Amino acid sequence: MVAGAYPPGSTIKPVLAVAALAEGIVDERTQIESRGGISIGSFFFGDWKVHGFTDIRRAIAVSSDVFFYSIGGGYSNIRGLGMDRMKKYEELFGYGAKTGIDLSGEVTGLIPNATWKKEKIGERWYIGDDYHASIGQGFVTSTPLQVLNSVVAIANGGTLYSPRIVSHIRSADGKVTTVPPSIIRQNIIDPNILRIVREGMR
Fold it and tell me: Where would a tag sit more exposed on the chain, N or C end, judged by fewer CB atoms within 10 A?
């Protein structure tokens, strides 16, 4: 839950949907067609099935990879967020940082960028890296708790908490000390954007 970091896969898509709406990449009526994948030169980036035309709510509901490739890396007339903006919003929702839970051994996971790839791997950043990152794969890793925490922030209207195992402490003489909630950040994003994303998740 806290000590292992793994590719989050499609569980990161609601945060990318938030980012795309907040940055004006798409609006709630924008339709993107999935014919089963997209081709860039000799490379093919597949969807898990043909979804046809999807707006952002349906793209979340059916987990359309093509929709998220498009808003993440850009395709056709969609300009895409690019990794730096994906990273900005993912970090806003708690990815790439410890949650601060009251357990030992927590790791941060990784939200990469072009600088990280050049330093660690010695290669430049490609649009394919954007596409992989936009569906929670490639170099992106997170803990299961980070995924959960990001979903909680979407569900509750934009408050990111530091999770707690302990709710209160009872001393030997029976005195109870409550451990208050710890807020990392509040009012993360426009509540209307969160509503649209929640409707897709529902």
Answer: C
Structure tokens at 59: 């793209």
Mean pLDDT of 132-142: 97
| DSSP one-letter code for 141 | B
Residue 120 in this model has a pLDDT that exceeds 90 = yes
**The tokens 């990161």 sit on which residue?**
12
The catalytically annotated residue of 10, 70, 76, 171 is 10
> Which residues neighbour 172 within 8 Å (Cβ) at sequence distance 6 or greater?
none
Count helices and strands in the chain by DSSP H and E runs: 8, 8
**Does the active-site annotation cover 134?**
no
CA 65 from chain centre, in angstroms, equals 14
Q: Which three-class secondary structure state does DSSP give residue 50?
A: coil
Q: For the chain, give the number of residues.
A: 202
Dist. CA 148–CA 177, nearest whole Å: 27
Contact between 166 and 180 (Cβ < 8 Å): no
Indicate if the pLDDT at residue 4 is higher than 90.
yes
| Cβ-based neighbour number of residue 201 at 10 Å | 15
Backbone angles phi, psi at 185, to 5 degrees: -160, 155
Give the H or E element holding residue 14.
Answer: helix 13-22
- Residue where the block lists tokens 């410890």: 98
Per-residue DSSP letter, 9 = G
- Measured between alpha carbons, how far is 25 from 162 in angstroms, rounded to an integer? 30
Least confident stretch, 7-11, 19-23, 59-63, 177-181: 177-181
